[in-house]
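thought: fold this chain, then report.
action: predict
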Amino acid sequence: MPVRVVESKDNARLKELRKALAAARRGALGRVGIEGPHLLEEALRAGLRVTTIFVAQGAERLLDALRVPPETEILRLPAKLLRSALATETPQPIAALIEPPEWTWPHALGQNHKKPLVVVLAGIQDPGNLGTILRSAEAFGATGVVCLPGTVSAWNPKAVRASAGSVFRVPLLAVSERECLEELHEAGVKILASAVHAAQPAELVELAGLVALIIGNEGNGVADALAAKADARITIPCPGPVESLNAAVAASVLLYEAARQRASSVSHPFSAAAGRAEERMGRGGLKRGARR
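observation:
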């Protein structure tokens, strides 16, 4: 594979990498910068378009384990120069510019005949939490993750690293609250807001049907105005002296419970209603044009 040598900090591609990493932290999105051999391998495995790879001199061996498409540009540069463009305290010797996947509502709602299990993030501010939620969403079979305004960008470098590659594969949307609620209601999805008080325990709530779980801000939870628009509230009983859980932990526990119920033949009290909603969805909930 041809490799071009770069020696200047003013190289156009290197500037683009710096800009992409900074823009992702602000929430802007174009090409995305990623760092490290693992994430690069995951991006390639997910079939994303990798436009440019940056490799530090002396680390070229990392390319040997990667199936790099012939059209991908490869730049070799001094390690110090590459470190100057990266966001981490201990930068990796390889980085890349990629084009993020384009997801639509049919993807997030499980277009391949899956029952929707959607995670709605309302004001999650810690990128590590967001990345962990994405990883749990993929692990427990969620069909999509929706980020409402006030939620940190899923392409923030810390969120990307915490996701361990799940950000490349889990259908991910960033939309307004109004659009989110309209799309979920139209698809017959039951919306459940996570809460600490005045809520049903997760194991008593029907999660095997068409479900969306709203996970709120780390400090304040789901805002009252948004929770009032949900169909019900759901909680995780904690027998210990801790009143509430970390947002990523809470999302992971609820997703596990949903996966457990979906894998079980146990009948739940709302199964008939879920079946009717599923019928409505099958009659056309995903047939209209997709919107980003």
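thought: worth noting. The first strand starts at residue 4 and ends at 5.
final: tokens above.
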